[in-house]
Write a structure and sequence with these properties.
This protein is of the alpha+beta class. It is 32% helix and 38% strand. It folds into two domains: 51 residues; 150 residues, no CATH class. It contains five helices and ten strands, in the order H-H-E-E-E-E-E-H-E-H-E-H-E-E-E. Helix 1 runs antiparallel to helix 2.
Amino acid sequence: MVTLVFASAGVFFFALAVRAWRKRRVAGAIGQTGGGVLFLSLSALAATLGVSTQGYRGLTQEEVALTVTTVPTGERAFQAFLEFPDGRDTTLLVQGDQLLVDAHILKWHYVGNVLGYRTQYELDRLTGRYIDIDAERTMPRTVHSLKAEKPLDLFDLAQRHVWLRLLVDTEYGSATYIDVRKPARFVVLVSTTGLLVREVDFRETDVP
């Protein structure tokens, strides 16, 4: 919607500029052309942000980012059944004593808020974690990506382009983990302070 509004304003100013040029109003034509360029640039910026935030979810309060049902399959190994808020689900095999999930979180400056953007997050990866540090160094590691495929990623753009600092207040990673000792069900929650995980009631029917 923001992209369309800026694009429409840009076209309107260019139409006024053409009219001014025909009437030989040079000063007015230059000013209206500048206005058209400005609004079309804002439209392109809004479109870029819209594409690069695909896969990110808007965040206004604590909400469920992921539901995980775990079933131990051996010593320091378990199966994790993942349920996403958008209805997707998948099953992963994980090595470790604990389940670890991390995410990217983006906070916007006032200008970004004016453009309609609020704090957003994207789950990044799910990892198996060992309690013992020596085991963490020597035992098999398991890392699964949770990111959605997209043509542009705002987290990467914000790290590479200085001009985005006018919009992005901060970008950072947040992670949470929990022991997996028995069949259990967890919800991974995200808030403006980061990720946290809570165990919820487990039922045999939760296992796919």
